[in-house]
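Holo model, iron/sulfur cluster. Inputs:
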Amino acid sequence: MLVGDELYIATRRYLIDYGMRHLNGLGADHICKVCIQNGGSCCRTCSHLIDGLGCQNRNTSCTSWLCGYLKLLFYKAGLIKDWDTFWDEVPGIEFRKDSTPPLVKMTTHLEVPMMRELGEALANDLKVKLSRDKNNLDFIVLARDLDNLIDEIEFADHSDIAVHLIKRLNYLIKDFHEFHQAIKNIELHKWGEKTTQVQKGGILI
Ligand code: SF4
Ligand code: SF4
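Output:
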């Protein structure tokens, strides 16, 4: 959630840590774990990756980049636009490296989400999917399809085309039962909080 637009100075290190806290706040690490175990890792063949130790040179580019599954996670959490707005302000984002200066002027400030159950639920659904599939090909193709489709939905905004694309997206993820339930729980929780706030304010809806 966007919580402010006042100018502030952030270090490159801070931006990377902040991004990681967001990803962890949505439980993205659960999904990456399943993906890496099944040969889908986006870090494959990168020179900064050391076997058993992980990435030795994390940068703003890899932190901000979302694959299809992480895009789905951010999209369904309602945070994808905020995430893009935040990283659009960061200069020097490249492929697997950055030229981001040590200090960056920023205005976007996001609240770190606390929805780890969302990523965990999606990871569990992906595990079920992988256990049914013959190999990991469909898993990799689905990540690409989700990536393209969510970009198209964002581009279509609220037009009639977007409605059609959202239907397609929901069809692609129709078997992700745990993920759907986690989204419903979060929506119910948000609705409950809103109702309590309204009642405390003495206004009945
Ligand atoms: S492709 Fe996506 S899910 Fe897989 S390791 Fe990379 S960011 Fe994580
Ligand atoms: S630099 Fe990026 S692609 Fe390379 S290992 Fe680190 S996170 Fe993965």
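Strands lie at 2-4, 8-11, 49-50, 54-55, 103-106, 109-110. The chain has a mean pLDDT of 92.
Archived with the compound record.
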